[in-house]
Amino acid sequence: MKMIDIKDLIEKFNEFLNSALDYEENNQEKVLESMKYSLFSGGKRIRPLLCLLTYLEFCDEPNLDEIMPFAAAIESIHTYSLIHDDLPAMDNDDFRRGKPTNHRVFSEGIAILAGDGLLNMSVELIAKHLDSLDDIKDIKKGIKAMKYLFNSSGVNGMVGGQSIDIELGLDEYNEDICENMYRLKTGALIEASIVIGGIIAGVDFDVMSKLKSFSSSIGLAYQFEDDILDENSDPEDNEVNMLMFKDKETLKEDIKKFTDEGFRAIDDLDFNENILKDFVYSLINRSY
Fold first, then answer.
1. d(CA 217, CA 200)
2. DSSP H or E segment with residue 95
3. DSSP structure class, residue 243
4. What's the gap between Cα 193 and its chain centre?
5. Which CATH superfamily is domain 6-204 in?
6. 55-70 residue pLDDT tens
7. Domain ranges of the chain
8. Which pLDDT tens digit goes with each residue over 142-200?
9. In three state form, how does the secondary structure of 159-199 look?
10. How do beta strands 99-100 and 95-96 pair?
11. Is the model's pTM score more than 0.90?
12. How far apart are CA 129 and CA 126, in angstroms?
C-alpha cells in the first residue's frame, strides 16, 4: 500500500467536505455561510483522521470513496456540537480557535440552524453513499457504521454528555461523574471514529473488540490532556474539569495509565502501517 501522508489525507478530506456543501442556493446563503464558517475555521480534523487512518490501516484494498462520507459525517456532527455548545444557553463563549464564535458572527438563530444543518448533512452524506452501493455486504457495513455513529452522538453518547455538563452545578460533580461525562461528551465520538473506520475496513470481531478498548482509553487520555492544556492557558476558567478533583501530576499519571492501556489493547494487531499509533501518540502528547 502507498505510504500514508497525513497532509495529503487532510487535503483530500477538506476537498470532499467542501463538495458536500454544494447545495443549490436560493434564500439560504446565510445559513450555508455559517456552516462553512465553522467547518473551515481551523479545526485539526482529529476525528475524521482517526476514522480514515483506522480504515487505511486495516483495509486490504482501501478506497477512500467508501470511507470519506463517514469521516465527513463525523466532522459535521462534531462541528454542529461546537456551534451549539458555544451558544448563550450553553457555554456562552465569544471565541473558538481564536475567532468569534458562530453566533457572534451570524446571530443565535442562524447558528442554531447551522448546527441543525450540519447534523442533517451528516445523514444526507451517509444516505447518499448507501444509495450508491450495490453489494449487500457493503450496504450492511454502511448501515452498521451509521447506527454506531448516531448512537454515539445521541442521548447515549455526546448529547447525553452535554446534558450532564449543563444540568449539574460545580458543587454537584465528583470524579466519577466527571469521568462519565467525558466518556459521553468527548470519548463517544472519538471511539465512534475509530470503530467506524474498522467497520468499513471489514475487521473481524476480535479486532473490533480491541479497537473499542483502544479508543475508549484514548478518548479519556485525550480529554485529560485537554484539561491540563486548558489549565495552563486559562487558569481562571471555571468550567468543569478533572483538575477539580486531582492535581496535575496525578492527572498526568492517569493519562499515561489510559494511554498504556489503550496501546496494550492493540499491541498484537497487524497494521498496514503504524501511522494510526503515531498519530494517536502525538494527540496525547500535544502542546496545543
1. 22
2. strand 95-96
3. G
4. 6
5. Farnesyl Diphosphate Synthase (1.10.600.10)
6. 999 999 999 999 999 9
7. 6-204
8. 999 999 999 999 999 999 999 998 888 888 899 999 999 999 999 999 999 999 999 99
9. HHHHHHHHHCCHHHCCHHHHHHHHHHHHHHHHHHHHHHHHH
10. antiparallel
11. yes
12. 5
